[in-house]
Amino acid sequence: MKYIKFKSFLLILLMLSFVACKDKLADLYQNPDGYSKELADKSGVSVIAGFFTSELTQGFLLSGDYGSCYHQIRSGDRIMANAVQIYQVVPEGGSAFSLADVEHDWGTGGFNESVFNYVNTSWMTPILWAQREYNKSPKETRTTLDTLYITLLHAIKGYAYQRATDMYDKVPYIETGSAGGLDGAKITYLGQSEIYPKILREFKSCDSLLAKINLTSTQQALFAKQDILLGGSILNWRKFINSLRLRCAMNVSEVMPGLTSQVISDLSGAPLLSANTDIVGIADIAVIAPNRIGDELGITRAFRERADDCRANKKFLQDVMNCQPTISTRVVNGQTLSYFSGDNSGMGLQNGTVDPRVSYIFSPDFSGRYIGVDTKWDNGSDINSYFNKIMRGYYINDPIMTDISKTTFYYGKNKSKSIVLDAVSKADLTKRDAFLLAALRNECANYNDTDYSVGKENNLVSEYNIRPQFNYAAKYPVIHAVETELSLAEAAVRGFGSPNGSARDHYKNAIALSCDYWYNLNISNQYSKQTSPALSSTMDDSRINTLPAMQYNASTYAEFAAQKFDTMTNQQKVQAIFNQLQLHYNMFNFEVPYTAARRLIKYLGTNPASQYDRFKWKERMTYPSSIQASDPASWTIISPFNNPDLPLWFTGRATKWKNALE
Amino acid sequence: MKSKFTLFITVLLFLSWQQIYAQQNVIKGKVTDDSQSPLPGVNILLKGTMKGTTSDANGNYAISVPVKGAVLVFRSLGFTTKEVNVNGRSVIDLALEASTQNLDEVVVTALGIKKDAKALGYAVSKIDADRILASGTPVNALQSLYGTAPGVQVAATAAGQTGGMKINIRNAVSFDKSSSTRPLLVVDGIPIHDQNTQMGADATARDNGTGINDINPDDIASFEILRGAKASVLYGSEGANGVILITTKSGAKGKGLGVSASFTTTWDRAAFQPDLQNEYGSGSSPSNPKNDAQGFFINGNGKRALPSVAGDGGTGAFGPKFDPNVKVLWWDGVERPWVAQTKNIYDDLYTTGHQNTTNVALSGGNEQGQIRFSYTNLSLTPITPGASYSKNTFSLNASHKLNNYINLKYTGNFYFSNNLNAPNLNTMNGQAQQASLGAYSADLNVGLLRDKMVTPDGYNYFANPSRRNILSGGALGVVGLFWDQLQNKSEFSRLHNIQSLTADITLSKTFGASLVGGIDYSTDRNEYKGRLLDPNLLGPLSGFRYSDITNIYKTAYGQALLNFNTKLSSDINLSGFVGGIIRQNTLETKGANVNGYGGGGLVIPNYFSFNNLPLGVQPLYQFANGEDMLYSTLGSVQLVWKDQVFVEAQARNDRSSILPPNQNSYFYPGVSATWIFSQGLKLPDYVKFAKLRASWADVGRPGPRYFSNVNYSTSQSGGGYILTPPTDLPPIDANGSPNLKPEHKREFELGFETYLFENRRIGVDFSYYNSNIYDQIMAVAAPPGTGANNIRMNAGSVQTIGWELGIKTVPILKGDFRWDLNLTFASGKTYVNQLDGKLQSLALWNAFGSINAVANVGQEYGQLYLTKSNYTYKDPNNENNPSNGQKVVNAAGTAYDYTSTAKLVGKLIPDVTGGLSTSFTYKRFRLFANINYQFGGTILSGTETYMMAAGVLKESLKYRDEAHGGIAYYLDANSNKVAGNNPGSGPTFHDGVLLSGVDVNGNKNTKVVSAQDYYYNSYFSNGFFPEDRIFKSDYIALRNISLDYTLNTKLLQRMHLNLSRLTLSVFANNVLYLYKVAPNTIPESTNGTGWDTGGFGTTALPAQRSMGVSIKVNF
C-alpha cells in the first residue's frame, strides 16, 4: 500500500501523456498518397500546368470514349446512318416496317446524356480549378506559361460548350474568368443564341493573345511536354482555335448570317487547319493510357461491340464515292432477274473516277465488291430490289442453279459458309432462286456471314475497314482540316465569304486531304493480334493484313469530283459538301455531321443525312432526368425544352423534320 | 507512438509484480438449477467487495473468503439472486430458482464498464449466448440479431452467408456515401475495423464481408447494443450510430477443467425463388421471320433448331411452347424432343450447401485466475457451385489475480478464414448482356452445358471463336456461371486477430484504475485467377487474369481510467472516473494485377504469377496508405440516492487527425437520470419493478480519413504531368481551407421499464427518443458547372422521432411447462430539417438510371422518385375529350410511354420493424421460434423486372397464347402486325398484346405487338424502371425455429455417459416468409450493405433456407 500514491501518480502521468500528442495530429491530417497545392508550391510546380494536361485527357473531350461512342454508334447511327444496321432495313432481321425511335430504346440514357454529364463535370473541372488558382495568384507572380495555359483552357472551354449547346441548346455556362462554383458563383443556363457570340469572342481573344505570345526555349520545352494535344505548337493551337471559329460561324449561319460573314471575314489570313496531318485529337486510350488496357475503355471497344453497325452504306459507296455496282440480268423461270455482278472500283480507282477512300475506309465483300446496303426498307417484294441484287449476285451463276445434283451452296472467302437446300429446292431447279435468295437475305440480315464480329472475311456486303478503324494510334477527330475546307466551301457557295479560294478549290482540297488522311490511317496501322494493344483475335488475318493495293491519285479523283461539283446547283453543292463531311468523319465523329444536318435542313429543304425509313428524326438530345432532383430550379427552366422533337435555335426552324414514316 | 505503448505495458507489468497477502478460507461447491442440472456461468460475489468468481461448465466453483463474516451472493441471468452466509462452511452447494426477473442483471456498458441494468438511464439491449446460438451457429454473428432488439435492423444481402450484413440502429442515415451509418463495433473493449461491403461487376469485386464476419458466435458471451446517444456518449466522435459491444466468453472457477463441445451441421438450399414458367423455352415470338409459324427457329439448313445469340432471337424465353412431339436440333448436333429439361432449374444451377461447425472449449480456474480456450472450425460449402468458406478460430481468455489489488485479463481471438469464389454481380447479373436472364429458361440442360464446358486441354469449349455463337444468351449465362465458379478462382483469405489486455487495479477503498490495451489486426489477401478461355483469344477478352491485392487494417487502442467510488452519506453514493483513450487506425494496401493473354499480359497459359510476364513488362501496381489518430479525455460521475435515483453525467473530448488541425477538438457531453419509483412510491402489489429514465447527449460521427483534404491525383502522359482535381469537392471554405467538422447527434430519450407480477410474467421496456443529427456531411450533387460532381459540406440536419417497445411475457408458467413470448416493436420517422439552408432537395443516389433516392426538406428522408414515369393523355384544347386520363402508349405500341416527370413511388426507411420470439419449455424440451418483420419501406429489385423482360417468370405467360389472353394478329406485306386472323394463307399468331390506352395525340392505340416485344420494352430497364415492378419491402419472416432436448445428469449417468449436460437440437433458419409483397424476390437481395447498394439489387442470385442439427455437451 505504501506505493499506492506513487502508482496513482504514475498512472495519471501515463494517461495524460497519451492525450498530449498534439503534433502528430497535424502530420497525419495530410494523405500520404495525395498531392496537394502545398506540396506543389514547396517544390515550385505549377498546378495550372497539371490541370491543363489533365483537361486534355478528359474522356470524350479530345479522345474517343467507350461508353459514349458506343451509344453514338448504336443509337446515333439509327439517326444518321453512318453505317447500316441491316436488321433495320429488312424483315429477316426481326424488324417490321413500323416507326421506331431511339427515345424508347435500350441505351437511351447513355446516348442522350453523355455530353451533358461530361460538360458539367470532367470537361469543366480542371478548367475551373486552374482558373481558381490563376485568380488567386497575384498578377505580378503569374508566369507566361500559366497565362498561356489559361488561354488555351478557355479555348477548350469554348469547344466543350459548342458541343454541348449543339446537343441541348440550354446548358449551364461558366463565364470566362470565373471559377464557377469554386468561387461560389451560381451557374446559369444559357442557350445557343447567347453562347455562340460569347465563345466566338473568346476564340478570337485567345487567337489574338496567342499571336503575341513568345516563349523562351525553356518555356517552350516545358509547354511541349504538357501539351499532349498539339505538341507545344502555338501555331497549331491557333489553327485549331480559328477552325473552331469557322465551325461556329457556319453553325449559326441560319440565324446570324451577319455574324457568320463577320467571322469569316476576320479569318482571312488567319492560320487554319489545312494539311491532312492537321488533325486535332488524342489517340485511343489504349495507347495514351496503357495501364488501362485491361479495362479496354477506348473507342475501339465501341467499334468491336457494335459489329452489327459496321455494314457499309450504299450512300457513301455509290452516291458519294461513285463506286457503282455492275448490273447484270439473267432470266430464270421466265423472269428477268437483275443482280450485281461486280463494281467499277477496279478501273475507277485507277482512272480517278472512283473515290480512293473506297478502298481505304471500306473493305469489300468476300467476293471483292464494294457494295453497301441501302437504308430504305426492303421487304423483298421487289424481286430486283437493291438488296436482292446484292444477294443474287452470289448464287445466280453458281452451278447449283443448273445442276440438280448440287444441293449445298457455298459462300465465303474459302467457301467456308454453306447453305443446304430444302427438300423442295433439291428436287426442283426452278425453286432454287427463291430459296437461295431468301436464305442469303436471312444470312446477311442475321449476320451469320460475320458471326456478329468485326473483321471477318466472309462478309456478304462491304464493311468498314478494320485497318483504319482499329488503328489505335488514330487520333479522335475533334476537328480536321477537311472540315475546315468544307466549311470554307459552304461559306463560299452560300455567300458568307470566300477567303483563301473558291468553293470549288476548298471542296476539291477537302476530298484530296481526306483521301490522304484515310490512306495514312490505313497503312500506318502497325497493330496485330500480338501487339499491345492487340487487334481482336476474332478478326480474320486476311482482313487485318489487306493493305490498299496502292495509294491512288487523290488529286485526280478530287478534280473529277470538282468537275461534278461545278455542274451542281448551290443546294446540290451544299448537299455534296455535307456528304463529304459525313463520309470523312463517318463513325468516328457523330456530332459534327449531326449538327450540320440539322442546320442545313432549312437551307436544303430536306435532310441531307441518309435516313432509315423507320427511325424518327431527332432534333436534340434530352437532359438527364436526375436533374429534377439535383437541381429542381434549373429543371423548371429546361424541362419545357426537354423534347427530342423540338428543333434547336440554330436550325432556324420551329418545325420538326419528319422522315418517311413520321 | 511505439514508445508510449511500451511505457504503457511496462507500467502495467510493474504494477503487476506487487504482491499482497491476506488470511483466507476457500469455499467450494456446485450450483444447479431446480432440476439439479449444473449451472455454468453463475456469478458468485463476496458481498461488499469486488471479489468474485463464476461457476464452471459443471456448475462448480471455488472462492476464497475471509474467515469471518463472509456472505456469498449467487447471481445468474434468469434465476433469483441468492445471498448465503458462509458461517464457517467450506462446501456450499446451492440450487437457484428460476426467475424471469433479472432486475439485478449486470450489463456491459460503454468502455466495457459493467453496471446494474436497473441503474441505466438509457436503453441497452443485451443478447446472450443462448439466444445467439438458439438455432445453430450462424456464419455471421449478426445473423442472430434479427428481431432481437427494438430499433436494431439487420439484413443479409444477395452475397449470401459469407458476405457483409447490413446493420442499422434507430434509422441512422447520412447524406453522403462516405459517412457510414454502421454502429461502432467493439470486441472485448477494442473497437474493430468495420466497413460496408458490396459486390461489384469486376471479377475481383467480391463481397467477402468485413471484420464482424470473423467473430465466432460460439465464443460470444453477449451482445450489448447501445442504441441511444447517452449510452454511447463515452465513444464521443464515433458514438452517433450506436455501439455494439461484443463480449467473448471467459473461464470460470471450479473443480478441474471444464470441457464443452458442440457440433452443428446444416444443409442449405436455394430458397424464395422467383416463380418461373416452364411452358415456353428459349427463342422469340412466332411472328419473328426467323421462326416458323409455331415459333421454332429455323436454321440455315431449314431445320428447327435452338436459337443462338441475339441474331437468332435466343436471348429470352419467348420461344415455342414445349411439345414432346417436336424435335429440335441442339447446339451439339443432336435432335431432341422440345420439352422442359428440368422441373426447377435452380436445382441444376445451385447445389445443396453444407455447413459443419465444431467447437471445443476448455475452461477452468481457481482463486488466482480463470482461463478459457476455445477452438472452432467452421466449414461451409455455399449453394453457389464452386464456392467454399472455412474459418478456424482460436480464442483464449485468461484472467489472473496477481493479488487482492490487481487483476489481469487477456483476451485473444485469432481468426483464419478462407473464402473461395464468393459471388460478384456478374455471378448471376440480372442485366448481364450475355445472360439476359435467359439462363433461367426451362429448356436449358445445365448438366450438358457443364459437362461440355471444359475441353480436354482445359479451355472453354464454348469460347472458341468457331463456337462462340452456337449457344443462346441464356445458355452462355449458364456457362459463364460455371466457368467462373468452377474454373476461375477468387481466393480471399483473412488473418484477423483481436487482442486485449486489461488490468483492474484497486488503489484504495475509494480509488481504482483500469488499463486496457489492445489491437485489432487483419490482413486480407484477395487473389483472383482467371483462366484462359481459349488460346485464340487475346487480351482482356481471353479471360486470363491475375490479381493479388493485400489490405492490412490495424487498430491499436489504449484506454486508462482512474475510478472512484465513495459513499457521501448512508443514502448517497458517488462514483465515476476520469481517463484517456488513444486510438490509431492504419491501412496498407499493396498488390498488383495483370489482365490478358499475350502482348502485355500473361504469357504461359494458366500460370498465375507475376513472373509470367513478357520481358520488361510490369503489372499494374496498387498501393494505398492511411493512418489516423484519435486522442480522447473523458470523465463520468454518477450520484446514487438510496439505490433508487441514479444521476449520471459523462463527457468526452476528442482530438482527431481526420479533422483539420485548426478544428480537430470536439466535446461530447451527456447526462441521464433514473428513478426506480417502485421503490419510492406505493404501487399495487403486482408492480414488482417500475422505473423512469431520461437522458440527453451529444455524440459525433466522424468523416472518413482524408475526407476534407484537397488532393490531386497524379499521372502522366508523354513527358507531362497531370494533376486531376477531386471529382467531389471536400468540405472547404471560400479560401479553399478545409473546414470539415464531425457530424453531431443530439438525442433526448425517455424510457419506462416495468415488471409485473411474480416471476416477471410481464415486462415492458419502452423508449421514446428524439434525435437530431446536425452538421451532417452532405454530398450535394453539384449544380452543373460547379467544377465538381458533388460538393461536400457540413450542413444537413435530420430529425428522428421514434419509439421502441420491448415486451417480455411468460403467458404460461405451470409445473414443468413454460411459455415465453417476447415482442419487439420500433417505429421512427426520420425527417429532413435542413440541407444546406438553400437547397430544398438532395439526390442521395440513383439506381437503374431512373430512380432517385431523395432527401426533401420537410419530408421523410429517402423518398424514392421515378424520374421517368408513365403518364396520361390530356387534351390541351378539350377537357371533355374522352381520351383524357388514358395512359399514353409509345409510338411502337410496345410499352406505356414515359416522360421525365418525377413521381413518388416509395421510401427507403420502413415505418415499423420488430420481432417476435417465443419458446415453449416442457421439462427438457424447448421449442423456439423467431419471427421478424418490417413494414413501410420499398425494395428496388432488378430481378423483378429483368426476369420479366426475359420471359422466364410465370407472370410473363400472360399474352403468350390465346389461353393466356394473347390476341390474334398476322403480318402484312411489310411485316407489320395487324390485329385479327390472317385473311390470306399466311399464319395467324396468338401472342399479341394490344395495350389499352391512346397514342400521344389521344387516338386509341391500335398497334398490336408480340408478347416478347411488350415484355422486353416494358421491363428491360435501362433508363427507366417499370412502375408496376416497384414493391413494398414489407415482410414477416419466420427466421428461426428449433427444438432442443437436454438430457439431465441422472439420465446421462444411467447411460454411462460421463457428461454433465447434453443437448440435442434440430433447427431451421430462414424458414419462410409468412408475408411479403415482392413476388419474385426478397428484401435481403441487395447488392451490398452500404448507403446505396443496400437499397437496391440487380442480381438474380438466390437466397437460401437452412436446416440442421446440433449436439452440445459439457464434461
UniProtKB/TrEMBL annotation, chain A:
Alphabetically sorted, this entry's keywords are: Lipoprotein, Signal
Q: Which InterPro entries match?
A: SusD-like_2 (IPR041662), TPR-like_helical_dom_sf (IPR011990)
Record's keyword annotation contains Signal: yes
Q: Which residues form the signal peptide?
A: 1-22
Q: Please, which domain of life does this record's source organism belong to?
A: Bacteria
Instruction: Say if the entry is tagged with keyword Signal.
Output: yes
Recorded protein name is: Susd and RagB outer membrane lipoprotein
**Organism, as annotated:** Pseudarcicella hirudinis
Recite the lineage of the species: Bacteria, Pseudomonadati, Bacteroidota, Cytophagia, Cytophagales
Automatic annotation (TrEMBL), chain B:
Q: Which Gene Ontology terms of cellular component type are present?
A: cell outer membrane
Limits of the TonB-dependent receptor plug domain: 120-243
Q: What is the topology of this protein in the membrane according to its UniProt annotation?
A: Multi-pass membrane protein
Q: Does the keyword Transport apply?
A: yes
Q: List all membrane-crossing ranges.
A: none
Leader sequence residues: 1-22
Put simply, this protein is called: Iron complex outermembrane recepter protein
